[in-house]
Amino acid sequence: MLNITRRQFLTYVGAAGGSSALLKANLALGLMHDDPYAGPVTVKPASSTNKPSALILGAGIAGLATAIELERAGYQVTILEASHRAGGRNLTVRHGDKIDEMGQPQICQFDKAENLYFNCGPARIPGHHRRLLHYCRALGVPLQIKANSCKLAYFHDDKAFGGKPVRQIDYHADVRGLMAELLWKSADAHQYDQLLSEDDVAKLMKFARLHGDLTEAGKYVGTERAGSTTDRMLEFPKPHAPIELKAMLDSSFWYGGLLGAELYDWCEPLMEPTGGMDGVVKGFVRHLKAKPVLHAQVKKIYNQENGVEVTYEQNGQFHTIQADYCFNNIPAYFMAGIENNFSSVYQAGLDSIKRGHLFKIAYQMKERFWEKEGIYGGISYTSDPVAQLWYPSHDIHAPKGILLGAYTWDPKVSAAFEAMTPAERLLAGAKSGEKIHPGYSKYIENGISIPWARMNHQMGCGMRMSPEDWDKYFHVLQKPEGRHFMIGDQISHHSGWQEGALASSEQALNQLNKLLSVNIDHGVNSHVS
Amino acid sequence: MLVKSFLVLLTLAAMSQLAVAEETPTPEGLEYCTVCHGSQLKGNANIGAPRLSGLPQWYIERQLLNFKQGIRGAHSDDDRGMEMRPMVSGLSVDELKAIAAWVAKTESDKPKATLTADSSAGKALYQSCAACHGAQGEGNKAIGAPSLTGLNDWYLVTQLNHFRLNVRGAQSADTYGQQMKAASVMVTSEQDAANLAAYITQLN
C-alpha cells in the first residue's frame, strides 16, 4: 500500500508541497527498515529418514525462493505452475517469445539478437534490496548498472512551456535556482529573525546562494550547471535564460516526476541482470532439484489435519497430491475460483486483495536516436498517457535498441490501453513519443505491449487493498491457515517488487519454523530430528 | 487411533470419488476460461467473472455469439463485459458451440447469497419475471428465457442494472436483450435490482 501511494503521488499529486512532504514521510519510513540482513531463513533441517514434502503453487519469485530454501533443508518439493513458463511477472521477452495476453496473445517480433530484449515486469534493483541481491550473488546471476535517471532526458507536458519538452537538467537547475532565490529573499526580508541568530541567517543565505547558484545579490539568472547555449569548449559559457517562476509553478513540477530519482527504491545506482531480468528465474531453476511442473492449473486446495491436498489439471487430466506443507504464490484474487476449505476470515482476506493495472509498451527502434541527443539510459516523463519513456543503458551504441514506450500506473489510463488491440496501443504510444522526440515513429520497427491486468494467469500487477482491509486482513494472510501459507509480493508492503516477494517468502518460512517448534514441544508431527 | 485413521481414509476416499464424478476436464485451449471463471466455472466475484457451471447450452451459445458480434461487451459502462469480449472475438461460431457444450457439462455448488436486501420486495417484483423465466426461475427455452437459478446474486444485480441503464438490451440486433429490457421496466432502482436478485438466489 505504501508503495502504491508512493507511485500514485508521483503521477497524480499535483500540489508540489504536498507531494514533497509525503515523499519525506515515506523516505523516513523506508529508512527505518534498514535492519542488517543476515541472509535467508534457515529452515529447520529435515531428518534423513523422514523427509517432509512441500507443494509450491506458482513458480513466481516467491515460490522459487521458498522452494530453494526448503530443498536446502531437505524437503521434497513439488512446484506447480499454471502457465507455459516459470517466473511469474519476472518476464523478459526476446525474438519469438509468447506474450500470453487473454484473448489476444502476441509473439515478440524483435530481431534475434542478444541485446534486443525487454523486461516486462520488474526491471531494476536498488542496492538496498538485499534479499534479491543475495540470491543474485548465490545463484550466479551477473549484474550491471542500470541508469534509471538521465539529466539529459526530458520532461514533457502539453500544458506547460507550449508543450515543448524540457531537459531535466535545465528544469532541475532552474527549480533549484528559483527556490533558492525565494529562500534568500525571505531571509533577506528578516523572515527568520525570530527563529535564528543573525549569524545563522547569514549562513542560511550563503547556503541558498550555493544551492541555487545565485548572484551576490541573491538573484537567480541561470547557471552553467545546466550547460551552455554556446560550445563550451571553444567559447565562454552562456547559460540558458531561466524559466519564469510563474511558468514553473504552472508546470505542476512535473507532478512529482521531478523527484523521481529521489525515491528510495530508485536511489542510484540501480542494477539489472546482464542479458535480462529473467536471469534471476534461470538462476533459481538451475539450482532447484525440483523443476517447475508447467501447464498445471490448481483446481482445489484442501487443508487436512496433517497436511494439504491439492488437485491440479494438466492437459485435461486431473491429479491429486498430498503434501505436509503448501506455499501458495497464486494471485489471491484467483482463490475464490479455486475449490478450498479455508475459513471465511481467511477467504475474505484473500478476496480483499484487488487487481492492479500496470501497463507497458516496448518498441524495437532501428536506431538509438536518443543517444544522438546525449541520452544514455534514464527516463523521460510526460503527462501524456504513456507517462514514461525508458532508454536502455545496456549495449550502448549498438545498431538497434529496445525502448520502453509506455509505463502507466493510473488504473484509468491503463484500462484505456487494455481495451485497445496491441496494434492500436503501439500507434497511441507512438503519437505520445512524437511529442518528445519528433520523428519517433519512423524509427519503430515493431513493438509489444504488456497489460498486466490482462495477462493469462496474472490478471493484475501491483495489488491493492483498501486501508481498512489492510488493517483487518494483512496479518491474517501473513499467518498460515493449517499447513497452507500465502506468499508473493501480494503478502508484502512492496507489491510489484521482487524484494517484496522474497520478504513474503522469508516471513512464511519463519512462520514454518515457528510451527515446527510448536510441534516439537507437543511431540506431534515433528519432521525434525 | 487406527479406527479413527481408517474412518478418515474412508471419508476421504468417498469425498474424492464424489469429486471425480463432478469434474469435467477442461478442453485444450480453454484453460483461459477457468483462469477467471474458476474451477468448473464456479465463478469468481473478485474478477467479476460469473458462475457458468451447467447453464443451458443454447443460452451460453447465444451470449458467446453476442460477445463476438459486439452486442455484449461493447458498452463503455460494461467493464467486465469489455474484458470478456476479446476472449471470443477471434473464435469461430463452431468453436463457440463447442465451448457452450462444455460449459453445459460443468458442475459446481450453487453459489451462496452475498447480498443483504429485501427478498420479499424482490418476490413481489419477480411476479412479472415468472411468466418467462418460470415460477422457480427454471427458464423456458421455447421463448429464449434462460434459467436464473445458479447465477451469482452480484451478477444478477449487475445485469439488471445494465438492462435498466441501457447498457444491455439497447441494441436493435439484440432481439432477446430488447425483450428482457422491455420486460424489466419494473426494476427502477439499484435497490429493486438487489431485492430481486436476493429473491432469485432463494430459488436455488
What does this molecule look like?
- Chain A has 3 domains: 44-86 and 280-353 and 463-522, FAD/NAD(P)-binding domain (3-Layer(bba) Sandwich), CATH 3.50.50; 92-152 and 356-454, Polyamine Oxidase, Chain A, domain 2, CATH 3.90.660; 161-250, de novo design (two linked rop proteins) (Up-down Bundle).
- Helix content of chain A is 33%, strand content 18%.
- Chain A is built from 14 helices and 21 strands.
- Chain A has helices at 2-12, 16-32, 61-72, 130-138, 168-188, 198-212, 245-250, 279-287, 344-351, 411-418, 422-436, 440-443, 467-478, 498-522; strands at 53-57, 76-80, 92-93, 98-99, 106-107, 118-119, 143-146, 154-156, 166-167, 270-273, 297-304, 307-314, 317-323, 325-328, 339-340, 359-365, 379-382, 388-390, 401-408, 444-451, 484-486.
- In chain A, the strands form 7 sheets. A 4-stranded parallel sheet of chain A has the order 2-1-14-21, with helices on one face.
- In chain A, strand 1 (53-57), helix 3 and strand 2 (76-80) form a beta-alpha-beta unit.
- Chain B has 2 domains: 27-104, Cytochrome Bc1 Complex, Chain D, domain 2, CATH 1.10.760.10; 113-204, Cytochrome c-like domain (Cytochrome Bc1 Complex, Chain D, domain 2), CATH 1.10.760.
- Chain B is 55% helix and 0% strand.
- Chain B is built from 9 helices and no strands.
- Chain B has helices spanning 2-22, 31-37, 57-68, 79-88, 93-105, 119-133, 153-164, 175-183, 190-202.
- In chain B, helix 3 (57-68) runs antiparallel to helix 5, helix 6 crosses helix 9 and helix 7 packs antiparallel against helix 9 (190-202).
- Classes of the chains: A alpha/beta (529), B mainly alpha (204).
- Chain A binds chain B through residues 82, 102-104, 295, 297, 299-300, 305, 311, 313, 315-318, 320, 333-334, 336-339, 351, 354-355, 415, 418-419, 454, 456-457, 459, and chain B through 8, 16, 19-20, 23, 25-28, 31-32, 34-40, 42-47, 49, 79, 82-83, 85-90.
